Amino acid sequence: MMAQHPPQVAPLPEYAHAPILLLICGFLMLQPLSTDLYLASLPSLATVFNVPASTVQLTLSMFVLAFGGAQLVVGPLSDRYGRRPVLLWGLSLYVLASVLCALAPNIELLIAARFLQALGCCSAIIIARAIVRDAYAPADSVLVIARASTWLSLAPLLGPILGSYLQVAFGWRAAFLALSILSSCVLAAVVLRLPETNVHKDPRATELRGLLANYKLVLGSRAFWSHALPGALSYGAIFAFISGSSLVLIRVLNVPTEWFGYCFAFGVSGYMTGTIACRRLISRFGADATLRIGSALSLVSGALFLALVAAGVAHWALVLAAMFLTMGAHGVNFPVAQNGSVTPFPQQAGTAAGLMGALYMSVAFVVGTAVGASFDGTLLPLALIACTLGFGIFASVRLTRRKIVAVAP
């Protein structure tokens, strides 16, 4: 029996002249690079600025907090004024904030600059999700997201490796300088090659009455919650490793800083594997079954991690294996969850993407704060958090899907 390959998809004819998929990948890569490129520098930041790990953790937590809150504004703005102008302003802010991060003389200003950086980054992610809905047929959008996610995985795969070497060779400021250069290139690509894709602008999208009506429509939809909730918890599960892996690997398990990037890249290769599997699972079994499979893998990875840590295993290989499985599960969950959260709302794609992203970032903020506050020099807090989230993902898929089936006519 011949192996099944996912079908290739193309944008709608009016956008065939533009490199839409390439631009979407570039936008989406900014978020993981904004967090992963400087992960190897987190222990060093605590030393350089003479602050505890929990304070350094705010450079991550405040980023996701600002990112989440901004999505509630960026989405409706793009629904009203268009994707292109909102993206141009957002990327310009990102470039400026990245330069401020690189020049920050103390931890307080670094945290503030990261807050601004998140506001700019948010526009790229929200617009990328909305453009998928604008420029591709609804039946093709989930495969587009899965394909983009495969390319997206290169950012968290290679970013920590590059960040580790930048930290060893030049110090923590080099990572933010690299982000400044990269985002400037993305901004130039938008100016030169991105057309406006929002042909159904909603003049009421930012009016209070229209905004509340759109929020009510999206938040009142069971289809939205059945995808957004497990997707947010799945993102929280990988964020536990994003925020905690450098602490446990470098400080607890004594992995050399220059090797951290390779360790993290191995874990992220699970995400790439998951996105490739997702494309094949969707083609063979459909989106709903794919999400059930991914959520089951999330539960298994979290439970095994906690069981082995409770049994006394404390080795870098265990952390890498748990990260690989958790991120692999997210690679299966994320394309289905993201597509299912936005596709039902063609007129409110930006608003739906913003609400979904705000939920993702709210969960990530709670998880990142919990990881920093609970760090005690062992693997147990991280394992407990990972297991709890794995169970939450599994349960949310079963419970929300059951509700939809129960109310279906």
TrEMBL record:
Bilayer topology term: Multi-pass membrane protein
Major facilitator superfamily (MFS) profile domain location? 20-409
User: Which subcellular locations apply to this protein?
Assistant: Cell inner membrane; Cell membrane
State the SUPFAM superfamilies in the record.
MFS general substrate transporter
Q: Does the keyword Transferase apply?
A: no
Which top-level group of life is the source organism from?
Bacteria
| TM regions (residue ranges) | 12-33, 53-74, 86-105, 111-132, 144-166, 172-194, 232-253, 259-278, 290-310, 316-337, 349-373, 379-397
Endpoints of the signal sequence: none
A cellular component term from Gene Ontology for this protein is: plasma membrane
Pfam families hit by this protein: MFS_1
The name this protein goes by in its record: Bcr/CflA family efflux transporter
Which GO terms of the molecular function aspect are on file? xenobiotic transmembrane transporter activity
Note whether Transmembrane helix occurs among the keywords. yes
Q: Which GO terms describe its biological process?
A: xenobiotic detoxification by transmembrane export across the plasma membrane
| Similarity comment | Belongs to the major facilitator superfamily. Bcr/CmlA family.
Which terms are listed as keywords in the entry? Cell inner membrane, Cell membrane, Membrane, Transmembrane, Transmembrane helix, Transport
